[in-house]
Queue: 2 jobs
Job 1
Amino acid sequence: MKQSLKSTMIAALLLLASAMPAAPLGSGQAASNSPDDAEAPQAWPRQAVRAPRGMVATDEAIGSRVGIEILKRGGNAVDAAVAVAFALAVVEPRAGNIGGGGFMLIRLASGKSAFFDYRETAPGKASRNMYIGKDGKLDEEASVIGYRSVAVPGTVAGLELALRTYGTMKIADVMAPAIQLAQDGFPVSEKLARQLQEERPGLQLFPMSRKIFLNAGRMWKAGDTLTQPQLAATLKRIAKKGAVEFYRGETARMLVDEMARHGGLITREDLARYTPKVREVLRATYESGGHTWEVLTAPPPSSGGVAMIEALNMLQGVPLKGWDDPQSIHVVAETMRRIFADRAAFLADPDFSSVPVAALTDACYARERAATIDPSKASTSKEVRAGSPHECGVPANPAAAPPRVATPGEGHHTTHFSVVDAAGNAVASTYTLNDSFGSHVTSTAGFLLNDEMDDFTTQPGVPNALFGLIQSDANAISPGHRPLSSMTPTILLRDGKLSFVTGSPGGPTIISATLLSVINWMRLGMEAQAAVNAPRFHQQWFPDRIRMEAEFPESMEQALRARGHEVQRGWREAPSLGHEARWHRHMGLVNAIGIDPQTGERLGAADPRDDGTALGY
Ligand code: DON
């Protein structure tokens, strides 16, 4: 469909936006109003939203509405996904972005699939020790807040490439809703007002952030209208001229000027050189419940797909009863411990290091790795080293020595959304600014900039500031390199047919949340919403403990402690330069779509942990 969006569509979207939180469109329904870390799950929806044709599941009702409107007007899932991504850049500023990067996994109804990598890159002036002071100590703030934490953004180039390759609409048409939302504004939700309050310490440090997101210090209240005229102008220029405007035009000029003025590293050359990549989808096949399942997932520079396949391989043949069974949690946590040890040693930007993907995802290696798990007792992370990955019949190379260890941090935010259209084309998309509101710097061009530099190994052997991840030297900062990611957009096929579209934000917990959603659907046969609602847990090798959602009962904590695990149920995140202190009950925000194998209906399962919304038609 190559057609201009009618002004009626724009008017309809505006009306919808201004009517928020009114009744949703189509046959969809909004998930419950339970802000993250505030409410227990009793009020969460029990059943996925059903619809015969298309479905969009995102963090934000407005984002889902934009997607569904594009589908209703004949756009395909890629058109809708690109429209949603631009719209979330307006209405979900903590994570939706044009100043960050991400991944988009596409599986077309024809059976073709592709993975778009628009991960940010390190600027040309970046260097290995740029965050290490004269005293040899890591400056943890410099890699997460302010101009020096910003990597070269990839989102605009990646979205344009995905649209041009597999979409059917013009960029101006899919961007029209985002432009309207930025120009005419949208109602601030309670969730957004709360997030802006939490992030005030960081946002107030930067004049444009303070002006736009803190209402020049007066703060936004739920129900206020947030307009973003600078962002609207930038989006209009991109809609008119394409991604080249962002990387070589007026937007590039504005960005480069402010970088030069404030000690940032990004230059004209960095922007002009940025290239999104189309990579081969990572795949694995399993038998479960009498069906053949194919998992399509993220290749490096994501670590997530490799980790997930390694985990699923290790868990093959292991009986899993569910998450009220301590034994099942024990085995999965021990599996996670090992995949994260391997992640630390082997994963990095595949364009610059040789990542042993085939060996890490090989069934023989998984069997050896799984054999090191004691079914009745927790290992210690000190004794679990990275393994010696190899393919069946090929001898192992000597293992990379896992680096030394220190202590962890925690952080937010990224966003995952899923789209399925009437023809059965599917998109799983995860994109991010890294931390919530990224570097907290808003460009004069009206958009927030990422702090993705912290995903590099900022100091070998020392965990990164936001997520406490130990990572290898291969992920060290180097110009043009992509920092290692955990983002794991994933699509499952059952007996060759589209079955489940999933993914999550959450730094390293992305891998666990996405893996658990896949296990819930493929291995445990849960209903789609149940697969999203089910409680989550995470073990990332170091720190040596299982982090569990607060809903797990104390008896589960005790049962795991009895097996030797350190356990943390819910956790407090300390205040930082960027944000106020906060208590976390939950991890991940999985916005998934299942397909009913009997009826073909789309089952929209947005994550109620933070007001996700699935809409269908
Ligand atoms: O790419 C990554 O793995 C991180 N930058 C993702 C950050 C994230 O998910 C923050 N969380 N909610």
Job 2
Amino acid sequence: MFDYPDEDLPFDTHMLDRLAEVSIRVGLNLQEGQDLIITASVESLPLVRRLSAEAYKSGAGVVSTLLSDDLLSLTRYEHASDESLDSAPSWMFNGMAEAFDNNTARLAVSAANPLLLTGQDPSRVARAGKSMSLASKPAMERITNFVTNWNIISYPGSAWAKQVFPDLEERDAISSLAKAIFSISRVDNPDPIAAWEKHQQTLTSRQNWLNEKNFSALRYSAPGTDLTIGLAKGHEWKGGASTSKNGITCTPNIPTEEVFTTPHSHRVDGCVRATKPLVYRGTLIEGIEVEFEKGKITKARAEKGEEVFLNLLDTDEGARRLGEVALVPHSSPISESGLLFYNTLYDENASCHIALGQCYSKCFRDDIGDDPEKVSEAGGNTSNIHVDWMIGSDRMDIDGVSQDGTITPVMRNGEWAYN
Ligand code: ZN
Ligand code: ZN
């Protein structure tokens, strides 16, 4: 390992080496000769350099890095005309899609200021978001359909750290966020690779139990929540590692605590209240309450950021329907940290959640998942968005409803109801 002489970081950079190792070996499981596309912010370069080094040590072909910068992103919202917000760099996403079809792996480093766009005109944010969703669809689809192996990890960016730890000085905030990231990503462990193997075994046993049960629906009850979520026909529960269509088993999210599957987009009824704020495209949305009828959100409100939330629901036909249902025990390390990360990768792993929008075709038996028509016949949802939000708490009970109507406790007070 060579030295990076200009590094002056308020945390143990050895942890970055380990994070890079976990990302490339467990997260991506990058194969000899595979190309890799990394997207990251300039602030996360200390990690990106290590990722690139680790990738080449694993025999990578070409590692291409696309860097972004928060202030650079803001220049557009501040100065671009309304009309120009309808444009997005589709050439770039088409190129990525082509690369994924040709076995290129995908790695995203998340470090950005989660509330970057707070204070910007919501209609301009929605307009730019819509064109970006549309343009990025070819690349996004290949990721949600697991055409290639992919991974997302994070780096303790300064604005993000200040958001999570508003009372600390910047360097202390970064140091605290770094500690949380390293611990929750299981790299503060002397053998992180072994720690991930053990964690995967737990997730596998949970998903096996749920797959054996093959519930027809899940029933949720908690303060403000009385919801029945039908599960898609032929749904399969997944958690942690997944085998992509290129035959490589990767662990897409680091961290990950969830087991998840595809709900039936037309069999969701009742009301649900969010238990944590949702950060969507840089805006904080708090106190979400919605009602579903036959799978579709018919009433929606939010205490804060309501306009952004309602715009999100109007993105397209599928944006008012569910594409994911995920179970996470309340005692997950992220929940135990007691922190709100303002970052879905972290916050979704603190609690049971649901996602509006696109479903994962991966969460079906293979005879269904390989055919988009069969996915939609089975109840899988289609949309340009996929937005997770948290509904779990230590006051949530979940029952599984079997195909014959039998009720089985799945969670009690936010914890697994079986061992
Ligand atoms: Zn999820
Ligand atoms: Zn999700």
